[in-house]
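Request: Give me one sample?
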Amino acid sequence: MKKLFERRPAVLLVGAFLFAFLLAVGVPNEQGIPFSLPRTLLLCAALMVPLTAVLYYLFRLRLKGSGQAAKLPSGKWRVLILMGIYLPAFLILCPGTFAYDTPFQLKQFFTGQYSVHHPILHTLYVGSFIRLGKWIGQVNIGAILYTLTQILALSCCFVRCTQSIEKQCGSRTAFVAYLFFALYPLHMLMAGTATKDTLFSGLFALSLCLIYQKMRFGVHNRENGRMILAIVFSILLRNNAVYVYLVWSILGLILLRESNRKTALAVLMSTLLAMGIGAGLKSGFHAASGSVVEMLSVPIQQMARVRLMRPEALSEEEINRIDTLMPGEAWRNYDATISDPVKFEMDGEAIRADMSGFFRLYLSVLVKCPDLCMDAFLDLTHAFLFPYQTYRVSGAYLQTDITDDYYDDWWTGERIHDMSLFPRARQALWWRFGAKGAMQWPIGYLFNMGVLVWLCLFLSLRRMYLDEKGSAFVALLPLLLLGTYLLGPCMTARYVYPFVCILPVLAGGVKRKENEQ
């Protein structure tokens, strides 16, 4: 009986239940069938035994390599080769992709009215290069310099990852990881995309690599410094990262053995350092706090859906309170796959003034209409939770353009504009990959967000199953990160990018072979 609660059986059962649950809710949701708790539990029970057997086989499966271990060039050459491989995509997208939040960040930079809704560090980074371009008299030169420096920084992150993988797992595994970083198309496209998600993803992968290395083999002072810097800068580029590292380090201090608590303590101190730097940036630039509604996408979606589809289940007082929080009947803007249409109209100050009242209202709605609330959550997160056949997310899979819709009186002079050397290729890329790339066969399954998340979940669970106790705990980091994204406003390709970058780290093996020592 005791063995049932040992780590490996527990990981196996938890993994089987997780995938059984995702199948039980994902298949009906894909077909538009409303959520049913009895049906979900019945399907989970039926799937547990076969999935446990499948995972047991896959967890223990060893892929044996053959031939001599491939030799990678030196670090500088690895960086140059990666940049050379990413160059064609840059020439197609030149001066890069300046969409998503970039116009809003540039407005903050040029007006001096900052907000922590967008990471200040990244706002300063992109804004400084665009200002340099305006000062030169060619704004696109600044945009090109930004893109090239980002490609360089991302390439350096990937090369450091391969060097760490080489120390942990051998040169053959590192060579395969390098090929993935070089040839998987999403890396080429994200490298030239001006969004915080690009560098955050590379830094998160690097921090995961170095935490694994520190847990298993220990690291030299230089590598320890790189780990700290990777953690600090990843937090400064992504607000949700602070919760991931903070929760992981605190749990590590409680659950890990004394020898491994030093790593958890190092992660905790790095996190506190990043929080201090972030607070300093906020104070120094007089940045406004982010709106509280940014953290409430899931409750907002659920309450809006119930108010729209089943108002008869609510009391008159609850209806009035929802209408007050969503003025102008904003709940009518409900879009199942993105919270922004309702969220942007929410009265954030009213929520902040009475947070306990907001959550009491939310819990009351949740208890009265659990099925509709579950459907709202599944529709919002479906792209991450299930390998979909139809891409149901509002907006493109991946933007590869330059947004020109948000410039007003704060901007003067030339705007960032398309300089593609291959405009037809850019248009084809947008139509076939950016807009529809997640659905086409066979290419679709290479970029299907549900497939990528499932692969990441499987590899994380496998590392938990096979690794030693301390390093097995490291695989909790990707799961914590996934949890923060599932609470976000939508599921997009740029949000799945961190989970793409860590795939070689998780798949890098759990044991270094003797002939590669």
Q: What stands out?
A: The radius of gyration is 24 Å. The chain has three domains: 2-55, 87-289+399-407+417-510, 292-383. The chain is about 70% helix and 0% strand. Residues 512-517 have pLDDT under 50 and may be disordered.
